[in-house]
Design goal:
The complex is a heterodimer. By secondary structure, chain A is α+β, with helices and mostly antiparallel strands. Chain A has a single domain, classed as 2-Layer Sandwich (Beta-Lactamase), CATH 3.30.450.30. Chain A has 3 helices and 5 strands, in the order H-E-E-H-E-E-E-H. Classes of the chains: A alpha+beta, B alpha+beta.
Chain lengths: ~130, ~300
């Protein structure tokens, strides 16, 4: 099932990148698709992440800086990294203070492409079903 | 342990590379690509700092353990930045931490980080001479002989434990049955609360604000006491939501800050490979004295 593969893909990213504490995939309009956030409210996270991505993309556009690759917030207690997944979804990764951002940046690309493909497959399945 | 190289000490190439840099009196950074990988910062051949995602930095150690408050840290940091001075001097001058204590924290963090680097996998080294900038360097820098000896010691101690501990893969998973008569001290309670099937020993160390080595020793003791298991895989939210997941003693609808833990023993052993793992030990549940026979909460 596409959904289990989705979770498996995200778990694989957690294994490759040190310091990820939670993950979620949400739609661009702020609805949770898949969550494994480890205690953080997934609905709130989905809504905020979709908004944050939209704002980040607008900032980048306003600043004339091409295409947003990742939006990362760094705090005293950890990190939140947000990625656009195609045009319709967003991936958010929660990490602790030791999150390996460099490795994340490198490994996330393939994960995002796979997630995009799985979501497309899943939506075409439900359209057909 | 996923140690590359000899069992006596840190991975051979890592020890060699560090020794070469030290002998050359290098000032700069030895970058280690791998898992977790990291950066070893040297000044005049002595190690002043190690950065790695695999071990908590001095900042994490001080803040997460609540030894220093966030606002105190921010104040000292801003003052150090403005004055062009050192963070350590600010912390000490403001009596936020004693100088001896701070030195102890920094040296322990250094040894912990080196141990984690040496216990991981290394793909590549790259030495980058140049100025070094780190918020809380060990001053004076540590001799590499000392650092390598400390690392060897830690690795030997872990090798002597009954079970293997992988810093990045072993996850302490919860169990279900209460163990009557088991007494917990508060620090153990805290660790067990974090062992929710999602966290590796490294993750737990970060959450507690203590070193990875010290954390593993505590986890080992808890495991010996029959309070922890090693999970075959990371638990997910989906696992927790599965039907029949209610832990014994949980009131329906009661707010619980602990994830509901209830893994069918057979589920953990579903994969024939995992059946070979050392027999899962059950964690008493629930904690914080919510149900009888769960052990004391001081």
């Amino acid at each position: 099932m596409a959904e289990d593969k989705l979770l498996a893909e995200i778990q694989a990213l957690r294994d490759k990148v040190t310091g990820i504490t939670g993950t979620a995939v949400a739609s661009r309009d702020g609805l949770i698709i898949r969550d494994d956030t480890g205690g953080v409210d997934p609905d709130n996270l989905a809504a905020l992440t979709a908004t944050a991505l939209a704002l980040a993309q607008r900032l980048v556009s306003e600043a004339g800086q091409g295409t947003l690759r990742e939006a990362v917030t760094r705090s005293s207690g950890g990190h939140v990294a947000i990625y656009a997944v195609g045009a319709n979804a967003v991936l958010v990764l929660l990490g602790d203070e030791g999150l390996d951002i460099t490795r994340l940046h490198y490994e996330s690309r393939a994960t995002i492409d796979t997630i995009e493909a799985l979501l497309a497959l899943s939506s075409s399945e439900s359209a057909a079903g | 342990m996923t140690t590359e190289g000899s069992e006596d000490g840190p991975a051979g190439p890592l020890r060699e590379a560090l020794t070469v840099c030290a002998a050359a009196g290098m000032s700069g950074t030895l970058r280690v690509t791998g898992h977790p990988g990291g950066a070893i910062h040297l000044v005049d051949g002595r190690v002043v700092a190690i950065e790695t995602p695999g071990a908590p930095s001095p900042e994490v150690l001080l803040l997460r353990s609540h030894r220093i408050t966030e606002s105190d840290w921010d104040t000292a940091f801003a003052a150090a930045a403005v004055a062009g001075g050192r963070m350590s001097a600010e912390l000490i001058a403001r009596e936020m931490v004693g100088s001896g204590e701070l030195e102890g924290v920094l040296r322990t963090a250094l040894a912990d980080a080196m141990f984690v680097l040496a216990s991981g996998t290394v793909e590549e080294y790259r030495s980058e001479p140049g100025p070094v900038d780190f918020v809380l360097p060990v001053e004076p820098g540590a001799e590499t002989e000392w650092l390598l000896a400390e690392t060897s010691r830690r690795i030997r101690v872990l090798a002597s434990l009954p079970d293997r501990y992988d810093l990045n893969r072993v996850m302490a998973a919860p169990g279900a049955a209460a163990r009557p008569g088991v007494r917990l001290v508060e620090s153990q309670d805290e660790i067990l609360a974090l062992a929710d099937g999602r966290r590796t020993p490294r993750d737990i160390a970060f959450a507690l604000g203590q070193g990875v080595f010290a954390t593993i020793l505590q986890l080992a003791r808890l495991r010996e006491a029959g309070l922890l298991v090693t999970a075959s895989r990371r638990m997910t939210e989906r696992d927790r939501r599965e039907p029949g997941h209610q832990a014994p003693g949980d009131e329906p609808g009661s707010p619980s800050k602990l994830p509901r833990r209830q893994r069918d023993r057979s589920a953990l052993l579903r994969n024939p490979k995992t059946a070979e793992l050392r027999a899962p030990l059950r964690l008493l549940q629930p904690r914080f004295g919510r149900s009888p026979g769960s052990g004391e909460t001081p």
